[in-house]
Write a structure and sequence with these properties.
- The structure is a single chain.
- The protein contains 17 helices and 14 strands.
- By secondary structure, the protein is α/β, with parallel strands linked by helices.
- A hairpin with a 2-residue loop joins β11 and β12.
- α9 crosses α10, α15 packs antiparallel against α16 and α16 packs across α17.
- Keywords: Methyltransferase, Restriction system, Transferase.
Length: 502
């Protein structure tokens, strides 16, 4: 029987169509396939599972004889609509609850789950789970998954998403309306009898006092709501507080604000964000229902899983999907420090310590730099010879004109590769034999001694993975969406999907 698959109207990147073809092969196993400009025609055979047509990620509709099938993914994306710009919708379900730097495309995760043949009997891990994109996509397909991350805000957001998809939207709407009404009926006052804390003193440096009083009042109201979904409302508020802070909202670093404050009041913006989220969840719950697998994010360090003995079982995972930090990564903690402190997830004096502990962190004090210089020279971490030689080449290329940050690059990269090697080593025993592990890795570049170095991080990570026992199955180059604004110059232009197996 012949089947016709129709693309969406939005513009695809080349890798998305490549993933779509791999997904068809994995899910449908067609007898023949004909790729045309606006459609793909496939011929089903006796092994083809027709029910899997509704699981496809990148198609708007499927014609199977006289039957019209709308894939579940296409239904979910309708809430945002593709609009006049014909853009792919990525904030469906709970994905849009909070912006998170470095978050990867949910459609990629969905298609990888299909390509890697993950199903309701599978157990999956994301060792750099961030705000929980992989976990949420697994939940939407009723796949059991666990996420690991050392950023407490990432864990907080990821678990709030899981709460949202498993709570009746009418309940979420009711609580949201109560929070807003209670706020409008109360004055924002500061109790002069209560001594200020380090948390409060820190936040008052970065928020106008009136704004600080408002977000603190909302914090109390949400905490006293008596609802099990309070973290959903904390996350929705966390998503907007930086726009009302004294920090430049578009900057990843700590810089004082030069742009004007929003004209709309914080409470009006918060109310609109709640209503938008409720509408989003109402539609997605109409598509998926509430009987979804509720997955969990845990505050683990993937470099040392033995420290969490008993929570992960040996030979447990059927697969893994992740987007690890880049070498010289975004300053995740620094960027999110206002939310981290406001939510009470970390005291102000621990911000930089946690930042420096992240894989790929660019924070490097002189004492640490000296320590890693010695490790690089002696290859203390036992990295593959080719990796050690590459880092040594970067070290020998440093020139007098290179400033402090560039002087640190060879040691930062060596530390990054050493940390990633620890991750690969620690994770390997928890995978079943032949279980696949997919990583989306960004390319990097730097200039040392006046010479540009294009750092093929994916290729180097494959060498490290092979070094500790993983097999390399495939690599697919991704073109990233063009970035605009303050950081477009340093934006990653290419990523590579690496697929390993045990």
């Amino acid at each position: 029987m012949e089947c016709i698959l129709y693309w969406h109207d939005y513009k695809y990147l080349a890798y998305e169509k490549e993933l779509a073809l791999k997904e068809i092969e994995s899910l449908i196993q067609p007898e023949d396939m004909y790729v045309e400009q606006n459609t793909i025609k496939i011929v089903l055979n006796s092994n083809s599972k027709k029910e899997n047509l509704s699981k496809l990620t990148y198609f708007s509709r499927v014609e199977l004889g006289d039957e019209l099938i709308i894939p579940i993914q296409a239904k979910l994306e309708k809430i945002e609509g593709n609009g006049a710009n014909k853009r792919q919708a990525t904030r469906y379900s709970a994905h849009g609850i909070h912006e998170y730097k470095g978050k990867f495309n949910p459609q990629v995760v969905k298609s990888l789950l299909n390509i890697l043949k993950m199903n309701e009997n599978s157990n999956l891990v994301d060792p750099f789970s961030g705000s929980g994109t992989t976990l949420l996509e697994c939940s939407l397909q009723n796949i059991n998954a666990v996420g690991l991350d050392i950023n407490p805000l990432a864990i907080f957001i990821a678990n709030a998403k899981q709460t949202a998809i498993s709570t009746d939207v009418e309940r979420i709407e009711e609580i949201g309306e109560t929070i807003i009404q209670t706020f409008r009926n109360q004055n924002s006052i500061r109790d002069p009898q209560v001594e200020s804390t380090a948390r409060e003193e820190y936040l008052l440096k970065w928020f106008p006092e009136e704004t600080f009083l408002d977000i603190e009042k909302l914090r109390r109201i949400i905490s006293n709501s008596g609802a099990q979904v309070e973290n959903v409302f904390f996350v929705l508020l966390s998503n907007i507080i930086r726009d009302y802070s004294l920090q430049e909202p578009g900057d990843l670093r700590i810089r004082r604000r030069k742009s004007p404050f929003p004209e709309e009041s914080l409470i009006d913006t918060y109310e609109k964000s709640i209503k938008k989220f409720v509408n989003n969840m109402r539609y997605s719950q109409s598509v998926t229902g509430l009987n979804l697998r509720r997955n969990t994010a845990l505050q683990f360090d993937s470099r040392d899983l033995s420290a969490q003995e008993g929570l992960l079982e040996t030979e447990y995972f059927d697969g893994g999907i992740t987007s690890p930090p880049y070498a010289t990564a975004l300053p995740y903690i620094d960027t999110q420090r206002l939310s981290l402190v406001w939510l009470g997830l970390i005291p102000p004096n621990e911000i930089m310590s946690l930042e420096s502990h992240l894989i790929g962190s660019r924070e490097f004090k002189n004492a640490i730099k000296k320590e890693w210089e010695e490790k690089l020279v002696n290859n203390t971490s036992d990295l593959p010879i080719s990796i050690h030689e590459y880092c040594s080449e970067l070290l020998n290329s440093l020139g007098e004109a290179d400033g402090f940050r560039r002087q640190a690059v060879p040691f930062l990269l060596y530390r990054y590769f050493a940390d990633m090697q620890l991750m690969f080593q620690n994770l390997l025993p928890y995978f079943k034999e032949n279980a696949p592990y997919a990583l989306i890795v960004g390319h990097n570049h730097t200039t040392l001694g006046g010479k540009r170095f294009d750092i093929d991080t994916p290729k180097l990570l494959v060498e490290i993975a092979n070094h500790v026992g993983w097999n390399h199955k495939d690599s697919i180059e991704f073109q990233t969406y063009r970035r605009y604004g303050m950081h477009q110059k340093n934006a990653v232009q290419f990523e590579t999907l690496i697929i390993l197996n045990k």
